[in-house]
């Protein structure tokens, strides 16, 4: 697969590297960044895989680092890129790969023979051997696991990313979902999970079964843990798997559809001469009354030179955040269908700035709503089958929260159309 793996900074300097074969000199790493810059100068799209002078460069970017794999052979580029993503999560160079060939990337398995405790090897002791289940079909789960109480917990967590312009229109919305599991099951259980995926009901059309309206959800960019049998999912959309022990992410998905903002914020700015500014903020919970949003935080930007804050809120607490040039309205709980007002006043210097910097900073909202999914994804069933025949207790929980990638434009002054900001 790979002859050399290295971690580079943004300037292309190698921070750490490991050579698994001797067919590529380490000096080839120095050619990586010049090749990237040449492609950018020529207006080419920088692809994760490219070749130069007989060397294959395969890389991913993680934060401010490049993770690079080099090979001279006709390697499987897709496998290498997937391995680099797993490598970032585990970060073990010698334990995950041997002679350039991936061995195991499952963190649960690696934790069993890589610990934080040191052990002195005595002369009469036998050298530790690799775990037997590494070479089996279920390498992510060892045999012999036993629990007094067999339970499995499933969390469906959805994050909403949204872009709203200054007129209050939803320009872009996206739902990123993840299904997290925590398994405390004995033996080698087989789990069967059914979701209200639209593809499942489409498959039923062949049997003249109607598609329920308003209940099916069409997922995009689904990604499964390696324990899932993909062939079975392609056939009847059933998620069949033998789970790892403990915590893991079973599935991630995305839905790119316009959704109604769950928490709507209207902000109105009123200037009193050049020495005082007043903010009138209204928050509206636009979800069902039986649901409640927890830990709601609304950030409103203010000019950099604003001072002497005064706040009055119908509920929650408001605090000035001078380090962020704004103030934060916090509410421990916000019930569905409710709306509240908050008033903030700031003093300004006598000389008015030519540019109001607060207009460039967006309003942001943070929240989490338990027992609720904005996409409508639901767990239809979760069955646990094990040869010993024990009964397991499945627990399912739904959570919707704000996403990390969204921009909410700031408000206009009084007299202009009120600007509504939201998540």
Q: What does this protein look like?
A:
With 423 residues, the protein is mostly beta strands. The protein has three domains: 102 residues, Beta-Lactamase; 138 residues, Mu homology domain, subdomain B (Immunoglobulin-like, Sandwich); 108 residues, Mu homology domain, subdomain B (Immunoglobulin-like, Sandwich), CATH 2.60.40. It has six helices and 25 strands. Strands 8, 9, 11, 13, 16, 18, 19, 21, 23 and 24 form a ten-stranded mixed sheet that branches. Strands 2-1-5-4-3 form a five-stranded antiparallel sheet, covered by helices on one side. The C terminus is likely disordered. Belongs to the adaptor complexes medium subunit family. One of its GO terms (cellular component) is clathrin adaptor complex. This is Clathrin adaptor mu subunit.
The assigned structural class equals mainly beta
Our Rg estimate from Cα atoms comes to 27 Å
Approximate shape? globular
Q: Give the integer mean of the pLDDT values.
A: 82
Calculate the terminal CA-CA distance, rounded to whole Å.
44 Å
Question: Looking at this structure, what is the CATH superfamily of the largest domain?
Answer: Mu homology domain, subdomain B
CATH topology of the largest domain: Immunoglobulin-like
Major sheet: size, sense and barrel closure? 10 strands, mixed
CATH architecture of the largest domain, by name, is Sandwich
Strand percentage lies at 35-45%
Top CATH class of the largest domain: Mainly Beta
Number of strands: 25
Give the % helix: 10-25%
